[in-house]
Every structure is written in structure tokens, then in C-alpha cells.
Amino acid sequence: xxPENHDDGxxxxxEPVIEFADVVSGEFDVEATREDDLxxxxxxLPQPESPKLHKxxxxxxxxxxxxxxxxxxxxxxxxxxxxxxxGQRVQFGDQIKVNGxxxxxxxxxxxxxxxxxxxxxxxxxxNDDPQNRPTVFRRLPRLYQGKWQSVGRLxxxxxxxxxxxSSGELANQLMHPRFGLQREYAVRSLGKLSMEQKQQLIxxxxxxxxxxQFGSIEEGGGEGSNCWYRVTISEGRNREVRRMFEAxxxxxxxxxxxxxxxxxxxxxxxxxxxxxxxxxxxxALMEAAGAQAPLESGPAHNHRTERASSRRRGNSVGPRPxxxxxxxxxxxxxERLVRTERKRGGKNTQAPVRDAQPDPMKTxxxxxxxxxxxxxxxxxxxxxxxxxxxxxxxxxxxxxxRPPLGPKRGARGSR
Length: 415
Description:
single chain; alpha+beta; Pseudouridine synthase; Structural Genomics Hypothetical 15.5 Kd Protein In mrcA-pckA Intergenic Region, Chain A; ten-stranded mixed β-sheet; four-stranded antiparallel β-sheet; 10 helices; 16 strands; elongated; disordered C terminus
């Protein structure tokens, strides 16, 4: 986001997102390796607890909880064909048998979880690579329920924003061509595109697996034979951007994805690091993908913290919109060559006009991921302030007695 000047002369600070200009200027590489940014590793938000087996059985009408505990202890209950034990928790998808008969129970699926990962070049997006190359999944945190699924892929040498979710349905919706979510890339090519070549990429070219076209192309300058371009495309076929440039005679020497739909690569997110999205951000992402089901609240989300974070930024408590509410809120910027609607009996016209789809990076409203990344920064800053205040230094307070940490826990086994 670009700073905006107001009547009082104040200047709003930059929103913490990566822009195309940051890539061209080299600030992107500085931010990705800055020492004082977020740590490269962090834990996930607390996961919602699964219900206990005896409670699920009691709710199904088989008897009281005490009776169900006795039934489990006597070995009459199997979970996924394994003997159950008292206190065992079950999750969505588990098969429960009582006295050898399948029991139909209702266990709510866990809410979808989404993380934004800054993929470095040299990693493959696969669980098992026959060549034993580094994989993105080795960097991801462990999920106790389900598994991470990538929202699309980036090839070995492509870097930037890569989304992962625990919901296969959400992943499919985010990738489905019907919703046309834009992917935005910063492309460094060897040699400058001519006006005819740019128009060719906008109108569409024929690749081995079908036609392909960019939604927009914007020049970004460069040095020597290296030229930067900002392009948008509404699908994600294998090496599609690279193959399109190669089709007009230009090789791509660097490719960075900086946006997927309304999710922008956060500024300061180091290469190989991730940040988990909060409930409001996930809800906005689901709405952008056409998902109708509302997100249920769960213990994995701290609404008080999210509301406080929102008030500190001067925003309302409701979900942050992904796109501008009015055209006048968009900043002025360089014109881009964009694809226009094909008229009946005619061809696409070349016209330097604005994008039809609002650009979340050029608005004063906000973007998906702002709440999550802002809370992560606040947690880190709070820890740094505590360290400087002498509360944590080598495991001992710097001066004075250690502040009380709460009531002491009893010995192991006591209640």
C-alpha cells in the first residue's frame, strides 16, 4: 500500500505487504532476510480439543457417561478397529464400533486452518520427491487432525506466496477456475518485451496444453538485459508463466508470486517461514473463493485479542473487506496493459486501462492476513520488551525478585 496524504499533513505508514516495487528495488530481498523480523519458526494457534469417547457415546443415547466409561474399560468399544481406552479422544472420521457393530455418531469436523508460507527457490511442493530434493512440507508444523494441502503449486525455482490449508474442500475452491482468483507475479525476463509481444500475451497464445493469457502486464524497469514485469493470471497450470514468456522468445530468470486472490505476501515474512491466518482472515478467504458455509468459532481463536488488535488499528470489529469499497479509495498509479472484453465480430483492443478486478495492494481498506500478521508482530514485540525490562535474561531476573507466575501446581498425580 502506498502512503496517503491527508488534510492534516500526516502520512499513513506503509501496510506490511510486499509490493511489486519492493521486488524491483531489492527491498524484497532485504525484508526476507532481515534479522529483526519474525522468527523463522512459530507454533500454530491452540488446536480445538476433540471430544472424549465416553461423552460421544453418551450423547448418542447409549447410556450415562459413567456407564460408557465402564463399557470402554471392559473392552466392548473399538476405535478404528483398535481397542479403546477410558479418556480417549475421537475426531472427525474415526470409526467407532460397540460390541462389533458400527455406531453412527456425529463429530463435527475441525474448522479449516490456513497458513501463508514464503517459499524459497530450491524447494519442491510434494511430500515425497524421488530425487530427495528439499520439500516445503518439511518446514510445516504438525497437524493433529488432518494434513496440510497446498493451494496450487510453485515449481522448483519459483518463490513467494504459497497457501496451505487443512481443508481439502477449501483448497479446491481456491484453485477452481470458476472463481477466477488472480495470481500476481513479479517476473524478471531476459530482454524487454515489445509492444506486440505484450499484446500477444494479453490476447492469448497457444501452449502445448491449451490457450493461455495474462490479465495484465506492467513494466517495472530493470538493469541491463534484465527487465521486470508485473503480471496477473487467473489460473495456475504447470510453469505457465515461464512457458508464456518462452513462447514469445524470452526466458524467465526469476519468478516471484506476491499475491493469490486477495492474500498478499506479508512484508517481513522470511523465506522458509509461515504465519497462520486467524478466523476472520480465513472467513474472508472463504468468501473470496465462493464458500457459503460460515466459519464456526472454536477454542483455536482468541476473539478478544483479534478485537483489541483491530481497535488499535482503528478498524471495526467486523471482518476486514478484501477489496476497496469505492473507486475513489484507490491510489493513482502507472497505467497497465490489461485484457479487455472481446467484442462481437471483433478482436481484443489494446487500451491502457485500470484492472477490472480491484487490486488489494492499492487500497486503504486492508488485505487478508493483516490481522494475523499484526498479532504475530505484537507477540514478538511484547517478548522483546519483556527481555529488555529484565524479566527474562539467562533464566533469572536482572534485578529484583521474579514476578509471581500464578498458583503452584500440585505434585504429579494429585488433583
